[in-house]
Amino acid sequence: MTEPRIQARGLVREFGAEAGVRGIDLDVEAGEIHALVGLNGAGKSTLMRLLLGMLRPDSGTVHLDGHGLDSAPWSRVGHLIENPLAYGELTGHANLVLAARLHGVPAPATATMVERVLSELNLHGYAAIRAGRMSLGNRQRLGLAAALQHDPDVIVLDEPTNALDPAGVILLREALLRRAASGAGVLVSSHHLDEVARVADRITVINAGHTIGALDPSGTDIEREFFALVHADDERTAA
Ligand SMILES: Nc1ncnc2c1ncn2[C@@H]1O[C@H](COP(=O)(O)OP(=O)(O)OP(=O)(O)O)[C@@H](O)[C@H]1O
């Protein structure tokens, strides 16, 4: 049995009484696309930051491929949390070369890798444009290219489609399915339930900092199921 790509146990990081992450267990297996859904402020980004060591938990543990965060295989991780990691004064191409180096990709392998991801996310037309001049959607594509080009084993993407056009959404979906099929574990948050249902193997619902259930990606009325879970949890909390 292989280790989960991501394993969190008892994660807590509170910001005052109501906000933050308040006790979450989560697994993302190799080959799996696992989606996190929840209302604004539910705790999805906070959870992802905790998983990536960007925030320290008050308590709980995270393992990536069986390693604690102090010894995690960071060069095998790709992530995009909120703002695309793009240096505005550098071109799209230069940003991707830099991201490859930061992920420890040897220089001779970089050119081919960058070419490949430019094609995969249809970014060739923007390779020579400075990131600061790109549209929001193309900056997001660039950030996704930087996160995915080294074919990481652990992929964590926070709302990766929020600025993408429909063509970008399809390209990203295909890119994630390809990587999961090669054994990556993918964790993705989204507000687009239909889109998530198309791509995810597992959908976890988060509300007020804890997991409250799962949605069946092949369900016929996933939106209704989502609101039923959230309302039931809100009522339980209010009681
Ligand atoms: N650094 C912080 N200091 C104080 N409160 C914070 C901090 N970061 C997040 N929070 C609060 O924690 C809660 C969860 O926020 P988080 O950004 O994780 O939610 P989210 O599910 O990603 O929401 P959205 O869908 O709007 O992006 C919110 O109430 C937020 O205001």
From TrEMBL:
The UniProt record lists the keyword Transport: yes
Keywords attached to this entry: ATP-binding, Nucleotide-binding, Transport
Protein name from the UniProt record: ABC-2 type transport system ATP-binding protein
Domain of life: Bacteria
Domain ABC transporter: from-to ranges: 6-233
Family under the similarity heading: Belongs to the ABC transporter superfamily.
UniProt organism field: Plantactinospora soyae
GO MF annotations in UniProt: ATP binding; ATP hydrolysis activity
PROSITE patterns reported for this sequence: ABC_TRANSPORTER_1, ABC_TRANSPORTER_2
